[in-house]
Amino acid sequence: GAVVSQHPSRVICKSGTSVKIECRSLDFQATTMFWYRQFPKQSLMLMATSNEGSKATYEQGVEKDKFLINHASLTLSTLTVTSAHPEDSSFYICSARDRGPGVTYGYTFGSGTRLTVV
Amino acid sequence: AQTVTQSQPEMSVQEAETVTLSCTYDTSESNYYLFWYKQPPSRQMILVIRQEAYKQQNATENRFSVNFQKAAKSFSLKISDSQLGDTAMYFCAPPKIQGAQKLVFGQGTRLTINP
What we know:
The structure holds two protein chains of two kinds.
Chain A: E1 4-7, E2 10-13, E3 19-25, E4 32-38, E5 44-51, E6 57-58, E7 67-73, E8 76-81, E9 90-99, E10 105-109, E11 113-117
Parallel strand pairs in A: 2-11
Antiparallel strand pairs in A: 1-3, 3-8, 4-5, 4-9, 5-6, 7-8, 9-10, 9-11
Chain B: E1 3-5, E2 10-14, E3 19-21, E4 24-26, E5 33-39, E6 46-52, E7 60-61, E8 64-69, E9 74-79, E10 88-93, E11 109-114
Parallel strand pairs in B: 2-11
Antiparallel strand pairs in B: 1-4, 3-9, 5-6, 5-10, 7-8, 8-9, 10-11
């Protein structure tokens, strides 16, 4: 089945530094990937849609200069949290659309990244 | 705009019991897919079941089945013979069929299976 690899699983960084999170589709090509943020005991909040070879589409209220998304290849999307601050601490999850049997689409998720900014 | 509502923030049942999680949604699309995902304590999102809106037959995956009422825009998840490993957050998600088809989620239902 489709697998999405997300790294790192945990990262601690100092306030003011930048952190990059990678999301790779291992056995399929993902023209579209999605980035989510999840606060404790809450649902996933969609941040942006990452499109291969073009600019990401951000959801309302998400700072595009704070959360830089790059989707340079069909198997890799990255999320860079720039000038991170403690309020950016959260659980970040990526997802990729994969083509299932026939024309049925599915969504496969990475295992998530817990970011702690100190 | 698509919206989903999961009206049960938390549920708790005994092992082997049957439990139904509710989900209602709003969409202007006529053809679409509906999903239920679970998120166990590991926080890995796992697809539980998928329903195609144009199919009248309710989807079934082993102990998991749905009650899909298209006119009512209702998509409930039934878990039969519940097991301890079913303890998780369950999210309902209705995607669109066109364009980027971004996947958004309801508020989730925290299900606890007690021994």
